[in-house]
Amino acid sequence: MSSSSLCTLQESGAKINQELYHKFTNMVSSFPCSPALTRHPLYRHDSGWYAPLAPMVSTMVADACFSARPSDIVIATMPKSGTTWIKAMLYSTVHRREHPADGPDHPLNSLGPHECVKLLEYQLYIRNRIPNLDGLPDPRLFAAHAPLVSLPRSVLTMGCKIVYVCRDPKDALISHWNFVNKFRARDGLEALSVETAADFFCDGVTLFGPYWDHVLGYWRAHQAHPQKVLFFRYEEMIGDPAAHVRKLAQFVGRPFCMEEEEAGAVEAIVRLCSFEHMTGLDVAKHGKTELVVSMAENSWFFRRGQGKGKKGKFKTNGKQVATPMKKPKARPKSETECFYCKGNGHWKRNCPKYLADKKDGKVNKSIYDIHVIDVYFTSVHSSPWVFDTGSVAMINNLKQELQNEQRLVEGEVTMCVGSDSNIDKITIAYSLYLQD
């Protein structure tokens, strides 16, 4: 199949299903909504995340209709968190054999990243369309902004590989604020102030946010299944893009061979996907991309996002943007009882008997004796809980959300802890004072 057929999905196989779109439109219209940084109000999904009407409907249609294959690779990001860059990086890495990165006719040079790797909820399942994606060759590449809980269920059940990029929230906010104001300027609307944008962001009312809920969903999945979920940090990608190209190739099962390394294939991909190269292309300067119900100038997707570059824009009287709460590190008190040896003044993680037994192989590997020692409640939907093992987990604050997720049964709160094959469900509390 030609690169044009691969990147520009034909609509001849798509069918109109107005009934399904109408059903989900009515459902989303009944959700609570709020003004936001975006031009359109954001609706709150039952799972707690926010999106405008059309993208939320598209996300739900994709969940119902998208049929994943085990070989599919899905990019997941919050908006304005390196989506364009990781799309280019993934496409050029996966297709480097048929399209060498230094070739003049590379599809990225003529189509751009957003036509080579399309967003499920912004470019594929839109305008009453249900596209036929069966003709795309393996591995199929897709992208999504949806949180993990609302990715198409077939992506999770079929074991597709997911590549997630996390960006410093302050920089992601500034980039999103700039992006939205370009739409507002085009439509003759007044620009939003960065303070207003920061207030929405801190309240969690942001596109596919709250931010930390989105990031933590994929981070937990990466910790539990690192062979299926790759987690990149945007700032680290900037620091060493070549290393991340190699990690990406290894993750998708296409590592660089010695001949490719010696020929400079990695460096060629880095150059192809660089900000300088991409912004100099005609498709970036003059092209447009369809996003649900609107067209975006391709040039709007490119902004030199050096980490920590624009934080001075925030005024001191605005809300603090996604800065972790400062709190002294929890330490055992003299009266603290160790749950392992029952002695005082220490926790199990630094208990001399526990450490000695662990060294001698006498400690059971199951995880049923973990206890909560501190909870840092926050104003968002989850808070850090500190355990006597030294680990920290994010637990929902909202009692109703715990009930919705079947995590609160007859007053008992349970959670899964561990990694890989060593995962146990433990009871962490019976009576909790949870936020309403």
From TrEMBL:
Residues 307-329 are annotated as: Disordered. Keywords: Transferase. It comes from the Eukaryota. It holds the Pfam family zf-CCHC. One of its GO terms (molecular function) is sulfotransferase activity. The keyword Transferase applies. The keyword Glycoprotein does not apply. Its EC number is 2.8.2.-. Belongs to the sulfotransferase 1 family. This is Sulfotransferase. It comes from Triticum urartu (Red wild einkorn). The lineage of its organism: Eukaryota, Viridiplantae, Streptophyta, Embryophyta, Tracheophyta.
